[in-house]
């Protein structure tokens, strides 16, 4: 009867140990994913800022071209009059 109790205690100990190992493994996976998400957000933020800067510059260039074209049109209009 003592041996049965020891066997049950040993089995229970193994279950607890395995559960703790599984918990630690899951905790590490969560931590890695969290770090990965943080890094991705940082990278995406940088990319978005760069893209916005490039697009803003393209808008400014196009606006300047439009102003020049309008000025040229006005100049042509005054010459023909």
Characterise this structure.
This protein has 81 residues and is mainly α. 98% of the residues lie in helices and 0% in strands. The chain has one helix and no strands. The protein has one helix spanning 2-80. The protein is rod-shaped. The chain starts with a helix and ends with a helix. The model has no long low-confidence stretch (mean pLDDT 93).
Task: Note the main attributes of this structure.
mainly alpha, 81 residues, 98% helix, 0% strand, 1 helix
Task: Encode the helix/strand succession as letters.
Answer: H
Stretches where pLDDT is under 50 for at least 5 consecutive residues are: none
Number of strands: 0
Instruction: Tell me the number of helical segments per DSSP (H or I, 4 or more residues long).
Output: 1
Mean pLDDT equals 93
Approximate strand percentage: under 5%
Cα-atom radius of gyration: 35 Å
General form: rod-shaped
Question: Can you lay out the helices and strands and say which pair or pack?
Answer:
Elements: H1 2-80
